[in-house]
């Protein structure tokens, strides 16, 4: 599994498995077993996905030493604030059956407890309870605000990124700050999979459309956490050992439409104005 080094020296797999799997949670266990067999070691979880207890049960019986797993979780909107975040960390780690997290993210920017939530993450980091801290759904103005008080630079910004919403401006900004870009919904939650331009490219490389999109992310130095409930796709999404030409990369870049799947961060969960 290819890894990258975060700005604090922590090694993180470039490809992880997204666990925001809706529907019947009993379906999750066979899927997770296959992910381990296929070689996934990074699992992207969140308190708000409602399945951390089940994931914890799985991790504790998966037969993989804890230090070989990379477990990410996120502070939910309802958990933000200094004491609330510290309590949320305890609840999350208890559910996940681990005493530390590899990466803990602020799930969405929230105006009121904005700095207090980050201060709690810094406390957890300094106490050695999390290996790295970061944010999710932060745009440049959220980062600018955070950096007026933060004493630790976020290691990661996990944001919606796919060919129809490629975040190229934010990507450049993150690069200048030394924050690693991780894509959520890297396949556009399935919405980009029917794109005719990418289908043509896939035909030439004799791989699937999903593989072309995921390889495009990796070539742009963006980490990915695709999710699937299909056995054969679990393996397929890891088989990305090919290079796209500069011309094909440019064709996919040109598909940018500025279309988000979910609302903009400032429209989601914002009780107060920025
Ligand atoms: N930080 C945040 O706010 C945030 C928000 C959203 C998501 N996330 C994270 O990102 C992860 C992934 O996002 P996502 O699930 O929304 O979107 P995604 O990974 O872009 O797309 C998943 C969809 O693509 C399909 N798919 C996956 N691999 C495929 C393949 N090889 N061929 C054809 N179809 C394929 C899946 O269908 P099947 O299951 O039928 O294969 C599913 O419908 C989540 O699980 C979560 O961990 C984070």
TrEMBL record:
Swiss-Prot/TrEMBL keywords: NADP, Oxidoreductase
Active-site residues from the entry: 49
Domain of life: Bacteria
Keyword Transferase in record: no
Alphabetical list of InterPro entries matching this protein: AKR, Aldo/ket_reductase_CS, NAD(P)_OxRdtase_dom_sf, NADP_OxRdtase_dom
Binding site for substrate: 107
Site (Lowers pKa of active site Tyr): 74
Keyword NADP: yes
A molecular-function term among this protein's GO annotations: oxidoreductase activity, acting on the CH-OH group of donors, NAD or NADP as acceptor
Domain NADP-dependent oxidoreductase: 30-255
Protein family (similarity comment): Belongs to the aldo/keto reductase family.
This protein's name: Aldo/keto reductase
């Amino acid at each position: 599994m290819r890894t990258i080094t975060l700005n604090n020296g922590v090694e993180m797999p470039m490809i992880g498995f997204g666990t925001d799997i809706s529907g019947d949670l009993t379906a999750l266990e066979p899927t997770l077993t296959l992910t381990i067999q296929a070689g996934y070691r990074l699992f992207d979880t969140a308190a708000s996905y409602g399945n951390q207890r089940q994931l914890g049960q799985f991790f504790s019986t998966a037969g993989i030493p804890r230090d070989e797993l990379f477990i990410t979780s996120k502070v939910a909107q309802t958990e933000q604030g200094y004491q609330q975040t510290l309590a949320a960390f305890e609840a999350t780690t208890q559910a996940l059956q681990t005493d530390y997290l590899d990466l803990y993210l602020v799930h969405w920017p929230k105006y009121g407890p904005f700095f207090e939530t980050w201060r709690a993450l810094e406390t957890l980091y300094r106490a050695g309870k999390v290996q790295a801290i970061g944010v999710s759904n932060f745009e440049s103005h959220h980062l600018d605000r955070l950096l007026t008080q933060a004493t630790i630079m976020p290691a990661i910004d996990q944001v919606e990124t796919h060919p129809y919403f490629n975040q190229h401006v934010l990507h450049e900004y993150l690069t200048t700050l030394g924050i690693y870009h991780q894509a959520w919904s890297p396949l556009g939650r399935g919405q980009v999979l029917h794109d005719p331009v990418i289908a043509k490219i896939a035909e030439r490389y004799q791989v699937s459309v999903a593989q072309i999109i995921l390889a495009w992310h990796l070539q742009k130095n963006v980490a990915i956490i695709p999710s699937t409930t299909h056995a054969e796709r679990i393996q397929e999404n890891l088989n990305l050992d090919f290079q796209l030409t500069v011309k094909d990369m440019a064709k996919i870049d040109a598909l940018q439409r500025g279309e988000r799947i979910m609302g903009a961060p400032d429209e989601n969960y914002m009780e107060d104005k920025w």
